[in-house]
Amino acid sequence: xxxxxxxxxSDVWRGLGALAALAVLFVAVPVGLYVVGGSPIPDxxxxxxxxxxxxxxxxxxxxLFLGVIRLMGWAAWLFLVGLVAAEVVGYLAGRPVxxxxxxARPVQYLARDLVAMAALLFGTTASLxxxxxxxxxxxxxxxxxxxxxxxxxxxxxxxxxxxxxxxEESPRRWRTRVVKRGDTLWSIARREYGAxxxxxxxxxxxxxxxxxxxxxxxxxxxRIHPGQRVRIPYPVDDTPPPRRDVQRTTPRIxxxxxxxxxxxxxxxxxxxxxxxxxxxxxxxxxxRPSTTRPSxxxxxxxxxxxxxxxxxxxxxxxQTTSERNNAxxxxxxxxxxxxxxxxxxxxxxxAIAATRLQRRRRRTYGTTWPDQPAPNPTPPAAxxxxxxxxxxxxxxxxxxxxxxxxxxxxxxxxxxxxxxxxGIRNGQEVTVPLPGLGLGLTGTGAPDVxxxxxxxxxxxxxRDRAELxxxxxxxxxxxxKTDLTALATAKPGLIITPTPAAAITHLETETIHRAxxxxxxxxxxxxxLRTTDPSExxxxxxxxxxxxxxxxxxxxxLGSRYAIAAIVLAPWPAATTLHITDDDTTHAQGxxxxxxxxxxxxxxxxxxxxxxxxxxxxxxIPDDEPVPISTPRAPEPGHPEPAPxxxxxxxxxxxxxxxLGPVRLEAAGNPIDTxxxxxARELLAYLALHLNGxxxxxxxxxxxxxxxxxxxxxxxxxxINNIRKTLRQxxxxxEPMFVIHAxxxxxxxxHLIDVDLWHLEATLTQARQAPAGPARxxxxxxxxxxxxxxxxxxxxxxxxxxxxxxxxxTAIDALIYLANLTQADHPDQALTIMEQALKHDPYSxxxxxxxxxxxxxxxxxxxxxxxxxxxxxxxxxxxTEPAPxxxxxxxxLLRHLSLHDSQK
Length: 904
What we know:
The chain crosses the membrane at residues 12-36, 74-93, 114-133. By secondary structure, this protein is α/β, with parallel strands linked by helices.
């Protein structure tokens, strides 16, 4: 998105117009009043007889009427002049101007706008100014009142962010939402309450709500305009209704045992009332750093950022100072020279998870089976390595690796970034406040550092958390291989302007807008307004440019109030300047010099930037992309009545290896909970995928790609030794090898170890090869009992994730195929199978459509509604909603059921 090149000129013309209006007010109006009516000051005070005589005699010559009109004109002029003078004094002295009541308030706003636009002409953005918590060097401290008028003064007068205090005795029973283009009260009610017919509740609560300047109050429920605000009342039990744009609590994702009591197992499973809030994993900070590797070095800390803005899981329990000091910060260093921290690494993990879930949302199952599904695209190499390093921190702390859905849930609760982590110094993270930050970057390493800052801000830009403004020439230098148009389209938080001057103009315009909103809400700064009205989008605003102009310097002085920061690829004497050399040495000058000198700054190289931005771009599929309509597959003729799935037969083997779900071992029916190392579990899962074995090079390359060949071979031998020792102790046998080395290949001994994955894949292969008809139906029946969980959910290797996704798609294809074959004769059983498929992929809209159709065929309208509502709840975690096709299907099915009931 770009701004027109004439935007700056329009601001100049507005400023000139304001000056002309003030000149007319102060000069032309009094001259005109004097010429027409004379001076308002009488020659002397009238006597009582003169006053009574003038009031008692007829006003035949209209002298009394004209005198009153003259006095009213002079009074109105004096009142307006007084308001302008008060605003100017407030601007110069930094004192708040009290808001006038009633009809006088619009006149006060007019005076304030005239002063603001006139000041804009001189590059000071008058009505924008606010307190600067971190004033840049050589800058006069600024104090700001709630009206948005700045003044020079003591830094001690700067107002800190103040959150409104609300007592528990009188909780708020509503929240505010800003109307967007295309909204109607019906659609808002349907999103907030799940029923559009409740829109009168919103209209009644919003009729008397003050609207932003220039917008009228709500008087007609059929006429609302973008930018207006509406109140969303809570239900009578004070429970906030579910939301789409801001999530306070996120719904649970996995529903392993959600069944109904009654005719349809899905009836309760699709009830959103039974979904409790999710609990995000809270990995602990490890006591020791992980091994430094040649290609990917990870200094292990918890997946948690101390910056306050990194994409991180729920904070771990509070630790002592010594424990925190003993744990080095998390960093990832790639062979290309890219060096990033926890914030960007977690954001990349979330972006890859969002990409996969969005693809699953649109996948139609059961249409191509028994053919193999097409492979999923893999993430770019740099993004995959960063994600792997991030997820490894969970395994190193013996914490469950979060699923894709859990990563998205963690992302929902993150606030707008308020601090920026720039690098590491002396084993500690170096962070600076983002609002009000002015940073100049010079030296050969400056572009890489700017790329790291830009990439991390873009990673946090979704859900209106951050907005990055970059002039097009600067963007072409930082992102030379990236399609900027496609990136800006996919990332609404990226604004590309044609010139640096246009970028400054955008910041000035946005600051004026924020000043007015703060004034209307009576809040001191953006953080306070975010707390008061979370539905109002107020992203942290940052610009990366090449010109440290005076206008930019003024904006940064105001940045702490309006959440604005600036990074300049040039020396910036008025702010903090960093000089970065080829050997990553940093020299700093300015307010943050002491904290930043000697810091190893995070950086991203050019090729890696392209990979990371490509990952961020694919994380959000446009909402207007069509969702496939699920079409039931025609059943095959001639099949007999199906039997219920048979349970797995007990194996006579000594050891059972479970790789569906977390990797775990059992010996003689008892779980092996101790003694098995993490690298041994990884090797067991890898060999389970290779029934015929794998060579040493294949195993070490897949499992430990960042080790040297010698170190990887040693790790392999150690893992095999650990497996044999653990299983011998568990079984009481001393002779078996369990892992066989025959020729050049290692493999699991199939006579001693039974693997659940082998049963599932053998059944899928048999069903695929069986002839269509009764034989294939019989071969498919064991699959619901065999496919119980995803493959190796506690492993983050590329090969594990690729097979996990492949197995899920293959198994669900087979389940849907089985349900389609069963549907004609046994619809209840088909619904149970579809429900299990939906449990394994709770984001596929075509699956929800299939379940809704089958419930409608069974004559259960309430179940159809609950299934649709469940899709609403689950897709809300992806910051989206069901496609119009799914909603239309709901309407059509309910209409058909209603007509059918009326004809009975």
